[in-house]
Amino acid sequence: MSSLNRRSFLRNAVVYGGSAALAPSLVGLAACTDQTRDAGPGRLVRRVGRGEGGYGSLVTRPEWPELALPVGFHCVKLSQAGDLMSDGVPTPNAFDGMAAFALPNGNIRLIRNHEIRDSAATAHPFGNAAMAYDRKAGGGTSSLEVRVRPDGTRELLRHYASLTGTHVNCAGGPTPWDSWITCEETTEGAPQGRAAEHGYVFEIPISAEDEVPAVPYKAMGRFTHEALAVDATTGIVYLTEDMRFRAGNPAQPGAGFYRYIPNVPGNLLAGGRLQLLALKDRPQHNTSTGQRPGRPLPVTWVDIEDPDPANAAADPSAVFRQGLAKGGTIFQRLEGCWYGDGSVFFNATSGGDAGAGQVWQYRPRGRSGGQLILVFESPSSDVLDAPDNIVVSPRGGLIVCEDGGGTQFLRGLTQRGEIFDFGQNIANEDELAGACFSPDGETLFVNIQGSTSSTGASKGMTFAIWGPWEEGAL
Fold first, then answer.
1. b/e per residue, 67-92, with b = 16+ CB within 10 A?
2. Whether this model's pTM surpasses 0.70
3. Fewer CB within 10 Å: N-end or C-end of the chain?
4. Are 76 and 64 in contact (CB under 8 A)?
5. How far is residue 262's CA from residue 260's CA, in Å, rounded to a whole number?
6. For the CA atoms of 385, 390, 393, 396, what is the dihedral angle to 10 degrees?
7. How many Å apart are CA 296 and CA 157, to the nearest integer?
């Protein structure tokens, strides 16, 4: 991955009240030309068009009616919910987090989450029941093998169930040792009628050509996991938690940003230490509102004594409360998370004064503290609406998937903090998810989620997109 220039990335692209704010900004679909636009009282946003970092106007094509993309780009739908997979299993719905890996034969392995939320009374594993973690849970992952044909088109070769019987597999993250870690965004268990306890992470090697046993990594915490990112230098894993903060409501104390320090880097099952981020000299600091972009905040970490508490099914915040009592920091619904240029970028989907979302950057310092920086706070849903999955481009830009109300976009962000629209969901108002690049950076894969019910009418879809990346920031 090429270097993402921190200074240029944090360079001002938003002006708050006429003063420089070290943060990039995002804005809704508009004419794709270099411009400055009013995004609310005292807030100006800048965006770029073709040749300035962006890729120009978004257009539809008969070949891919579900998406609008810049002129010159190509797209193919690889997979849709309900398609019969190579193992005879119908492709499950609720396409979410995903990552792409290089295979020894030159092809691409995609591993994709399925955020099935069926009740315990109706859920069933979509794969091999004998391999399923829980016979009363319908989530898991599927694996796809994709190749680039001689004519440049992308082609699905085979796909199959790779992990089943887990529940609400929302996001996860790739590892440097060639595996995908899928995360459960729930702590349901026996009290909710499940046949196994949930709220864990599970690992799928890219080499697996069939369904793998579902082994929960309990030392990495039992909470409402969302995504994770691995520091390629240290092997430390950073994890997000999708929980809401509501003032005066003890049942909703907020979300945490965690790290897991493995005893053996690359072998997460060998045990390790789970910790929660805390701002230095700011115990229980609430980042939901009143934050200032661009200011580096020194960080410390507090230990989680019991990462797998017995009461987690009844209290999804049981792990977070342990860290909060030691001064841990409060976030508002942490979701997408990705590692790049020695930093971890993650989204607070409902954070900020407007509740429209925040983009954060954590700069690690080995096993010590590090710095937390608010990269951007959306002033309204018209500027950025509920940022969810995030990915760092191999060329140094960022792509953010929206998960808000109404029309959903893929937003691009240059190293200079300038914004452009790269994609739009034309098919429906489902969220865009799972954005990731192929190892060579030539193909962007992305999902339209579809229904989170296995019987829902809205069908999840996976797309491959390629084109003149060199003409813009991605």
1. bbbbeebbbbbbbbbeeebeeebebb
2. yes
3. N
4. yes
5. 6
6. 80
7. 46
Which tokens is 172 given?
Answer: 């996860």
Q: What is the pLDDT of residue 376?
A: 79
* Interatomic CA distance for residues 121 and 305, integer angstroms: 34
User: Alpha carbon of 343 to those of 9, 45, 339: distances in Å?
Assistant: 12, 25, 6
Task: Please determine, for residue 253, whether its predicted confidence score (pLDDT) is greater than 60.
Answer: yes
**Is the CB of residue 139 less than 8 Å from the CB of residue 184?**
yes
Q: Which amino acid is at 425?
A: N
In angstroms, rounded to a whole number, what is the distance separating the alpha carbons of residues 334 and 350?
A: 8
- Candidates 346, 448, 440, 462; CA nearest to 393 is 440
Widest CA span of the chain, in angstroms? 62
So what's the pLDDT on residue 124? 96
Instruction: Please give the Cα distance from 119 to 453 (Å, whole number).
Output: 9
CB 454 within 8 A of CB 126: yes
List of E strands, 349-394: 358-363, 371-377, 387-392
Six-digit token string for 168? 């609400």
Q: What does the alpha-carbon distance between residue 268 and residue 245 come to, in Å, rounded to a whole number? A: 30
SS3 call for 298: strand
Torsion, CA 131, CA 141, CA 343, CA 381, rounded to 10: -140
- Name, in order, each residue with C-beta under 8 angstroms of 374's C-beta and a sequence gap of 6 or more: 23, 287, 291, 292, 293, 294, 295, 358, 359, 360
Return the structure tokens found at 400: 């953010």
* 321: DSSP letter: H
Q: Are 142 and 160 in contact (CB under 8 A)?
A: yes
SS3 220: helix
User: Do 340 and 375 form a contact (C-beta atoms < 8 A)?
Assistant: no
Q: Nearest 5 degrees, angle CA 153-CA 461-CA 58?
A: 65
Residue in the block written with tokens 């030309």: 33
